[in-house]
Amino acid sequence: NQSLKKYRQKNPDKVREWSATRHKRKTGRLPNGTVKKLLIEQNNLCVYCKIDVSEKYHVDHIIPLAKGGKHEPLNIQILCPSCNMKKSAKLNYRYEDVRP
Questions:
Q1: Residue 62 and residue 70: Cα distance in Å, rounded?
Q2: Taking residues 26-55, what's their average pLDDT?
Q3: Across the chain, what does the average pLDDT equal?
Q4: Which of 32, 38, 31, 33 is nearest to 76 (CA)?
Q5: Model-level pTM?
Q6: Whole-angstrom Cα distance, residue 50 to residue 70?
Q7: How many CB atoms lie within 10 A of CB 83?
Q8: Which residue from 14, 88, 1, 84 is spatially nearest to 46, judged by alpha carbons?
């Protein structure tokens, strides 16, 4: 996205601050196999739109880190890139809210 790239170039301090803050909230690593286990539990389907995510997916925090969520297995779900971008850092996100 060109506008995002331009924003980052014009505001390096804000970008650095945001990145540092996010990385501080994302402490530790998920246990090995967490994502693979979730993919199996979700039958390789996006939680919201139910499309196949076996090839391309995003690991999403159910309660966003920005809203106080933790980086732990119980707060992780697998979404397609499109649904994850729409959900962003929203709480109580519902697919019906953005479905065409």
A1: 9
A2: 90
A3: 84
A4: 38
A5: 0.69
A6: 25
A7: 23
A8: 84
